[in-house]
Amino acid sequence: MRAKFFMVAGAAILLIAAVLYSLSGSKDYRSLNAKLTAAQIMHNPQRPLSTFSLSDHNGDVFNNNSLMGDWSLVLFIYTHCPDVCPTELANMAMLKAQLKNKHAAIIPKVVAITFDPLRDTPKVLKTYVAHFDKAFIGVSGDTQQIDQLVKDLGAYYERVVYDEAGKPITLKKHEPLPDDAIEKGYVINHTARVYLMSPDGQVLAGFPTPHKVDDMANDIELLIKAFEE
Amino acid sequence: MLNNIKKILFILVAFVSITATNAASHAHQNNHVNHQITITDPWIRSAPINAPALGLFMNISNNTNQEVRLISAHTKGYKRIELHRTIDSNGVMKMVKQAFMPIPAHAKLHLKPGSWHIMLIAPEQVPSEGEQVSVSLKFNDGSTQTIQVLVRKGGMMMQHHSMH
Predict the structure, then answer these.
(1) Thioredoxin domain spans which residues (chain A) (predicted)?
(2) Of A22, A38, A157, B139, which is the most exposed, with the fewest CB atoms less than 10 Å away?
(3) Are A35 and A88 contained in the same domain?
(4) pLDDT (mean) for B101-122
(5) Residue A39 has pLDDT above 80, yes or no
């Protein structure tokens, strides 16, 4: 009986120690939540970003290392998007201007990864993203690698084609596009979150829509300060 | 005598018809107003030179006693022009093609980023910022309006926030 008690107590102490250790090993950003107006904390050291290798709009490798050393704002786009994606990119340009006006010490770089590498080659992205800001980085590459990043960041997309009668058909995740899809066109339904990546190449926070640049700028300053303290 | 009266009548009719034509053409130039359906602030979002699709936005006011539907839009130099609405479904932004855009009686429909918009697909040449594009809009009451649309910049917050 006594032995059993010590075993249970010992296990409980070990469990508490493990929890304390895991918490002390990383910062807890949840206390920031009350101050944040636009961002949601996504920091989770237990689930680091998978290893990925893609191409930037100049055709150079864009991988985990490309997100290290600097702060970045990562978003997913596709260039055939007439509404949501250009709005997001225009908002990112305004957000940078807002941070500049506030004399922010750090202005994150903006990385736009395509949901649609079939149509959005690095060359296409180079012309497209530069329209919004010359410093924006467009990223394309292998679909599976992009899908892994989409999954890691909790994003989502689905492709929609139209049948002869104009009725929309949502394709399943790995369902191939019909042969005439490029000719007839297809759209993509997608999440439109913007992710703030810290210089360790990991996601710190996410910004859901709508993207109010004033609120985002304030939150970015708070998050950077908390990370660097 | 009779001939004189005929002459006077002829001059009178000619004068009235010229005045009426002038008034009509003046009304036509007067900022897209036909008193029943009014279009204000039409704009196309300036886009990259290789943009495969552009967004066209505006306010449509219906001053009649019944619902009016925008059924199509036409302008030169695009492969297709479609009516769309962006719908936020639990964070997933869905672009849904529409057969028409309903403008309720005595109400306004605001075509804006993240909401109702006209999609200009596969441009022969993307218009540049500051350019004016002629677009005609067809309604279900049989009327058509041709409007001049300005190409300008615009994010979601452009209308509400000024940069300091």
Answers:
(1) 43-225
(2) A22
(3) yes
(4) 96
(5) yes
CATH code for the structural domain at B37-139: 2.60.40.1890
Name chain B contacts of A218, Cβ cutoff 8 Å. none
**At a CB cut-off of 8 Å and minimum separation 6, what does A5 contact?**
none
Q: Residue A92: which domain range? A: 28-156+191-228
Looking at the fold, whether A72 and A164 belong to one and the same domain comes out as no
Q: Do A90 and B156 touch (CB under 8 A)?
A: yes
The answer to whether A91 contacts B91, with C-beta atoms less than 8 Å apart, is no
Are both A180 and A72 inside the same structural domain?
no
Average confidence (pLDDT) over A23-37: 76
Question: What ipTM was assigned to the predicted interfaces of this complex?
Answer: 0.81
Q: Using CA coordinates, name the residue in chain A closest to B117.
A: A83
B50, B92, B157 member nearest A191 (Cβ): B92
The alpha-helical segments, DSSP class H, found in A153-196 are 181-184
In A46-125, DSSP assigns E strands to 53-56, 61-63, 72-77, 109-114
Q: Are A84 and B114 in contact (CB under 8 A)?
A: yes
Separation CA A188–CA A204 (nearest Å)? 26
Query: Which residue in A86, A124, A192 is closest to B93 by CB distance?
Result: A192
A50 touches chain B (CB under 8 A): no
Determine the pLDDT at residue A18. 52
Provide the β-strand partners of residue B56: B44, B118
Task: Say how many CB pairs under 8 Å bridge A and B.
Answer: 111
Residue A48 placed within a domain? yes
Give the angle subtended at the CA of B90 by the CAs of B87 and B93, to the nearest 5°: 35
C-beta contacts of A134-137 below 8 A and 24+ residues apart: A135/A109, A135/A110, A136/A89, A136/A92, A136/A93, A136/A110, A136/A111, A136/A112, A137/A56, A137/A57, A137/A62, A137/A109, A137/A110, A137/A111, A137/A112
Residue B1: pLDDT band (50, 70, 90) is: low
For the entire predicted model, the pTM comes to 0.82
What is the predicted pLDDT for the residue at B162?
37
**Residue A104 touches chain B, beta carbons under 8 Å:** no
